[in-house]
Amino acid sequence: RPRSHTVTTTSSSFTANLSASSSTLAYDREFLRTVPGLLMVTEIVLGLLVWTLIAGTEYFLYPAFGWVMFVAVFYWVLTVFFLIIYMTMTYTRIPQVPWTMVGLCFNGSAFVLYLIAAIVDASSVTEDLDNHNYNSWAASSFFAFVVTSCYAGNTYFSFISWRSRTLQ
Prior knowledge:
5 helices; MARVEL-CKLF_proteins; CKLF8 protein
């Protein structure tokens, strides 16, 4: 005897919203014209300079430079990640995440760890270790302090943004 096959399909509001919201990619060109955007680009460029100056040497023989490399590469990758999030306005699509708090924690931790790394970098640079690597390590130390000041600036702007959101 023939069977009747009935198929019922339902669609959730989550998938409808996801397909509607992901159909167009937003791009915020104006972000790079703001002070936090310029600081972020500076952090990326100079952070890349810090870790490439160290990576071109025999840094692995000295544990202090390994720490500086870790901090520089780790925060370089995360800063690129956050730049992409801000440029594509992904933060508007994920309103459950407290982005002002995330930005404050990220920039604050980057400032503190980069400051420690810059101090370690500067205190580890001596001509006694290796003359061949001295100039690269000295330059990386200088740029580490510049990147630290950029993260300090972004921490300040993140704090102002966080503070204005909590007062509302």
